Each structure stands twice: as structure tokens, then as C-alpha cells.
Amino acid sequence: MSKHRQARRGEGTAWLSADRLTDGFHCHWYAGESGGQLVEQADAATAKEAVAWGLVRTPRVRIRTRDGETQWAGTAPRPSTFAASWAPA
Fold first, then answer.
1. Do strands 13-19 and 61-64 pair parallel, antiparallel, or not at all (unpaired)?
2. pLDDT of 32-77, one tens digit each?
3. What would you report as the CA-atom Rg of the chain, rounded to the nearest whole angstrom?
4. pTM: predicted TM-score of the whole model, two decimal places
5. Which residues, at least 6 apart from 73, have a Cβ–Cβ distance to it below 8 Å?
6. How far apart are CA 17 and CA 61, in angstroms?
7. What single DSSP character describes residue 6?
8. 86 Cβ neighbours under 8 A, 6+ residues apart
9. In three state form, how does the secondary structure of 44-55 look?
């Protein structure tokens, strides 16, 4: 039997995705080895609420906006793979 430790605040990455049908956002926090373990999920009504949800959990937050662009919304340094940082509208 293997031991699984719970993710701690500050670990992993929050993935936020726009839902064009509901106009809201799906929020997922992944952590654990290789960042592949879903730790928590929720829905948010706005991008601003989704980003706030992610930042409570980790400084590494990425958001897929309604126009299909993926942007960095975290307070950790933006990875070079992200061309843009998210800013509230």
C-alpha cells in the first residue's frame, strides 16, 4: 500500500478554463508527483473569481480565456512557454 500525502498550499498548478456554454470557468488544482494529481476542483462565475480561487491554492495559475488563449495568471514568474500574462478586464 502506498502513502499519499495531501497537497499543500503553494504546490502544483491551478488550471482555469472558460466554459462558453455557461459563461463561467472550471477550476482545477493539480499537484503531487509530476503535477498530475487532481487535488481540488470548483466552478467560478468570472475569470477574476477563478484566478482568485487559483491564487489561494498556488502561485502558479494558468487560464484559458473565452477567446481560446492561454495566459499566465500566477504570481510566480511567468514560464517562457506563456506569451502573455492575464490581466482583469
1. parallel
2. 777 688 999 999 999 999 999 999 999 999 999 999 999 999 999 9
3. 13
4. 0.88
5. 16, 51, 54, 55, 61, 62, 63, 85, 86
6. 11
7. P
8. 47, 51, 63, 65, 71, 72, 73
9. ECCHHHHHHHHH
Reading the block at residue 70, the C-alpha cell is 492561454
Contacts of 32-41 with C-beta under 8 Å, sequence gap 24+, read 32/4, 32/7, 37/7, 37/12, 39/6, 39/7, 39/12
Helix (H) or strand (E) holding 84: none
User: Would you state the cell numbers that stand for residue 28, as one nine-digit string?
Assistant: 482545477
Q: Which amino acid is at 21?
A: L
How far apart are alpha carbons 55 and 23 in whole angstroms?
21
Measure the CA–CA gap between 26 and 54, rounded to whole angstroms: 11
